[in-house]
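From the methods appendix. Each design record in this collection lists the tokenized structure first, followed by the designed amino acid sequence. Records were kept in a plain field format so they could be parsed without special tools. The example shown here is representative of the layout used throughout.

RECORD:
FOLD TOKENS (318 positions):
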């Protein structure tokens, strides 16, 4: 599938819907809102689907207030664009009408299951926002500052502000093109990486108090209890980049954050070089990228969840 096939599909449909994955991050929200702005600039009727709002630190993005207000496809929709989601079961929407509607699956996760009617999956892209920029250019949309803010946000959140190995020359070329619109990149940088609510700083402190290492320091582990989120009145999905702190020791190659939920653990994994995070999480029904992935684990206890992860890492190292 190439862009021209998708351009033709978009051109032939007036009533479209956009959806991304559950627990939306910067790339998911930025890609969705950036594409919504672009399609509306073409005169398209666009519905934004999500069962939950975007992270509060993305509230500066245009159309942010629409994200998380609808999750059921309107009956007049004829095309659904699924963004940044490798598994159809993780799409943040109601399932009524999903089977029947034409679906375009645009993603950069290596674990993508190609569930769309048509699929554009580029695992070499650093973010889905990078792909959406290409699609907007193919649609001959003039990318303005609001669109650029959304797409730049998606790129820098998924690349860790260009620190992660997924960053490519193409990534930097797209970022440069977005900056040429006049977008205030320093404001975005400050909002995302230098500003945190007091409750989030407290949450980071709680996680770091649990930091431990395993396998001679090769693996760092942290955990957060359900009550940590309740006391601080924040979502158990709102943990930002806490997991990345576990990679700071020079000997650490894997960092894992366990978050206690209702009967299971949400697990975030980050790696440096030797372990494929997506493959590791894939063993437990999750997925993602080579260096950043996640999964849900139904373990009897935190200790057993840790042991399961460590055994799998040891197997992968053997």
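DESIGN:
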């Amino acid at each position: 599938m190439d862009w021209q096939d998708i351009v033709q599909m978009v051109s032939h449909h007036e009533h479209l819907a956009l959806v991304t994955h559950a627990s939306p991050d910067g790339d998911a929200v930025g890609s969705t809102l950036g594409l919504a702005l672009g399609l509306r600039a073409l005169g398209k009727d666009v519905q934004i689907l999500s069962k939950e709002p975007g992270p509060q630190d993305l509230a500066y993005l245009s159309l942010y207030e629409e994200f998380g207000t609808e999750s059921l496809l309107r009956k007049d929709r004829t095309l659904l664009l699924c963004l940044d989601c490798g598994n159809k079961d993780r799409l943040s929407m109601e399932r009524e009408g999903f089977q029947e509607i034409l679906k375009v699956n645009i993603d950069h996760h290596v674990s993508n299951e190609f569930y769309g009617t048509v699929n554009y999956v580029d695992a070499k892209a650093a973010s889905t926002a990078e792909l959406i920029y290409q699609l907007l250019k193919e649609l001959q949309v003039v990318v303005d500052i609001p669109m650029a803010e959304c797409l730049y946000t998606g790129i820098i959140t998924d690349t860790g502000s260009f620190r992660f190995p997924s960053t490519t020359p193409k990534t930097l070329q797209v970022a440069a093109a977005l900056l040429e619109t006049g977008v205030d990149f320093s404001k975005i940088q400050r909002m995302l990486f230098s500003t945190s609510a007091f409750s989030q700083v407290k949450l980071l402190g709680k996680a770091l108090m649990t930091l431990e290492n395993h396998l001679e320091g090769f693996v760092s582990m942290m955990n957060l209890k359900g009550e940590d989120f309740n006391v601080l009145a924040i979502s158990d999905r709102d943990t930002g980049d806490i997991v990345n702190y576990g990679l700071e020791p020079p000997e650490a190659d894997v960092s894992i954050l366990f978050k206690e939920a209702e009967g299971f653990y949400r697990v975030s994994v980050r790696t440096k070089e030797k372990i494929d995070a997506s493959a590791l999480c894939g063993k437990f029904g999750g997925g993602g990228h080579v260096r950043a992935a996640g999964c849900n684990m139904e373990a009897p206890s935190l200790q057993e969840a840790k042991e399961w992860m460590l055994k799998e890492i040891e197997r992968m190292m053997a």
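APPENDIX NOTE: The longest helix spans residues 26-41.
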